[in-house]
Amino acid sequence: MKTSISKYVALFGALGLLVGCSEAAPEAKAPRPIKSVVAEIRSIGETVSQTGETRPRYETPLSFRLNGQLTFRVENGVEVKAGELLASIDKVPSQNNVLTARAELATAQSALEFARLTAERNRELFSKNVISRAQLQEAEANLQTAQARFAGATTALSTAEETLTYTEIKAPRDGIVSAVGANVGQIVQAGQQVVTIISNQDRDAVFDVPERLLNDGAGTTEVKVSLISNPAATATGTIREVTPSADPVTRTFRVKVSLDDKGQRMPFGAAVLGTIVLSPKELVELPASALTNKNGATAVFVFDKTSSKLSYRTVQIDRYDDQNIYVASGLNTGDIVATAGVSKLRDGEVVKLEAREGQ
C-alpha cells in the first residue's frame, strides 16, 4: 500500500514539473510586418491652379463735386469715348455765380484804372510841391487796395468758371457705362456715385490667393489662364498687382493678372483657372498614410536596420496633396519610413519589413 502511494506521488510530481516548464517558456511573439518606403531627398516642383474671374482693369465710379438736380444721364451699357458727357446737374446757380463774378471783376477793373490814374497825377503834383506827402500816400494806398480788389475778383471769376464745369461729368477714358446711381430729376449730393464706367479693352484675371502660395510663388510672374467653360480658350498673363494685406475674413490676398491679346477677348465676369509653376524645393515625398501625430507634432516612424526597431521622428511638412505629403525637414535620404498602420505602431517596437515593390 505504501508502495502504490509513493508511485502516485512521483507521477503527480513529474506532471507538475512539466506544467511549470511550459508556463516558464511561452512561445515568442513574431515581429509585426510593416510596409515601408525609402526616403529620397529630391528637387520637387509644384503646379498650382486657382479659380478667379475676368474683370476690367479700370473701373471708375464718378460723382459730382456739387449738390444739384440731375438734368441728364447716359444709359447703362452705353459705350462712350473719352471726354463725352455722361451726366449733368442744373447749371443755373453756377452760371449766376459766374455772371456775378464777371460784374465784380469789371467794377474792380474800373476802380483799379481810376486809382492808377489818380496815383500818377498825385506823383506829378507832389514833385511840383502842389500837394502834400500825406495826399500822395493816400493815393498810393488807394491804388494798392484797388489792385488787391482786382486780384480777388479775378480769382473769384476763375473759381466760379471752374465750379461751373463741376456741373458736368465727362468720361475720363474710353469705356462702357457699367452702373448708374441716380435718375434725371433726382437731387444728388456731392460725392454720390452717379455713373460708373469700365475699360472696354484692358482686362485682368483676378484671383484670391492663400498666403502659402503667395510666399512660395514669390518671383513668379507668368500665369497661364483658361476659361473654365472652355478650357481650350487660353491666355498668358503677368502678375501686375498684389494687395499688401490679407482679407480679414478669408485671409487671402487679391492678385491681379494682366492678360495678353488672347485674354482681352475673354468676356467680362468669366470664370477662369489660373495656373503657375512654383520653384522646385528639396523635399521628401511620402504617402499620406505615413504621417502620424503625437502631442500636436507631425511625425513618421523610421525603421532601424540594425535593431529592427521603430523610432518616432518629428518632421516638418511643406505641403499636402490628395495622396502624398512633402517633408521639408526631419528625414535623410535612405531612411526607411513606415507607410501603413502607423496608428498601431509604437516607438521602440521591433518589426520586420515586408518586401517592397521591385525587391
UniProtKB/TrEMBL annotation:
Keyword Cell cycle carried by entry: no
This protein's UniProt keywords: Coiled coil, Signal, Transport
Single GO molecular function: efflux transmembrane transporter activity
All residue ranges annotated as the Multidrug resistance protein MdtA-like alpha-helical hairpin domain in the record: 100-167
Record domain CusB-like beta-barrel: where: 207-267
Domain spans labelled Multidrug resistance protein MdtA-like C-terminal permuted SH3: 286-342
Compartments, record wording: Cell envelope
PANTHER family in UniProt: HLYD FAMILY SECRETION PROTEIN, MULTIDRUG RESISTANCE PROTEIN MDTA
Domain of life, source organism: Bacteria
GO CC terms: efflux pump complex
All residue ranges annotated as the Multidrug resistance protein MdtA-like barrel-sandwich hybrid domain in the record: 65-198
Coiled coil: 129-156
Name recorded for this polypeptide: Efflux RND transporter periplasmic adaptor subunit
Similarity annotation: Belongs to the membrane fusion protein (MFP) (TC 8.A.1) family.
Keyword Signal found: yes
First and last residue of the signal peptide: 1-24
